[in-house]
Amino acid sequence: MYSLIENDIKKLVNANDESLQFVLSHFRQIKTKRNHFLLKEGDICRTCYFINKGCVQVYYLDKNNDEATRDFFFEAQWMTNIESFSKQEPSKEFYRTIEPTELLAIDRDSFFQLISKVPPFMEAYRQILEASYSHSIQRINSFNAMDALERFHWVREYQPHILTRLPSKIIASYIGVSPETLSRLKSKLRVERKKG
Amino acid sequence: MYSLIENDIKKLVNANDESLQFVLSHFRQIKTKRNHFLLKEGDICRTCYFINKGCVQVYYLDKNNDEATRDFFFEAQWMTNIESFSKQEPSKEFYRTIEPTELLAIDRDSFFQLISKVPPFMEAYRQILEASYSHSIQRINSFNAMDALERFHWVREYQPHILTRLPSKIIASYIGVSPETLSRLKSKLRVERKKG
DNA sequence: CCAAATCCTTGACATATATCAAGACTGGTG
DNA sequence: CACCAGTCTTGATATATGTCAAGGATTTGG
User: Fold this and answer.
1) Does the global pTM surpass 0.85?
2) B63 in contact with nucleic chain C (CB within 7 A)
């Protein structure tokens, strides 16, 4: 139950076994079916998650009530709605499992106690924040000035598991095109592959 | 010289005067003309900045060598290329002043010494990271599922100083449209305003 | 304060992507 | 195992935005 998260923390920081076990003891396990909402628009986020198995889609509803996917989270990833979690403001996003999912969860109060009491945990959190922030910047840059085909290539290069593991409709909402356009892109690529 | 940054840190954390002065003593002042590059693509970022006066544009070059602007930084904002600064990898972005600009600068080594030695500074950094990450998420969500006009409205609502202070060409590269399209949007809005 | 460079606007046209519609396919559930 | 809801594909058409071009306005630096 704790092996993935233990590895992950050890990869980030040096922590003695005692403080590591102390940290881990604050996490509880949660198992969900697919299509389970961990957080909805308007909720206050009080939990930080580490994913042991499964997949979560983070999205919001645009003005036509279509889903616009910002990100996905898979095994061995940390996940929370940072804005709502840190400032206790209502979430603007939905967090929903796409597969049956197993999570480790820590409440906000415990979390902030840990980062103030256990320096290596603060250090790990800092690194996770920096990496998450970097990742979102890459997403902005990669998607803002690319057309649909380039965005598709970008996902195939840097996040290929998204293309193999998730339904096309959801992939389309991540790439920022209609399902029809994504379908045509793929069909075009198939034809070009036959020719080449 | 230090009054803006002092206020900013005090707003975030409680720090006694001694540690605050200790922190501030690690910053040096930099004054630049407009169109000065603080960081170029390929450079390793070794500095974190606090802006006292002026404005910096962060952009990268797309495949046609057009500028795509990710963000702007103004007075009383913290700024660094987080990916390059934290991992010492080459920057993918350019940082260029748009106006004559005055900055406070701290080197990476000093910075990391401070966050490990001065807990309130670590705490301030954590809050800045969380806020910056939140901001980039809002940018992703606001721009990904909006058309050009909606993005323009969004900027007018949440970052109006961008529209009044910066040249249209640069605004267009932030909104993600060609200068011609932005010009037509504005002209359309002027007409509608006359009618209404 | 002037000249040169840059920027802004507008028109005509090209292109990418969305929308609507309909049929084929698929997988989860009773 | 079969059915049904949901998904995927493909075509026809509509729309938003890009590109190219040129003249007018504005800004910058000497």
Assistant:
1) yes
2) no
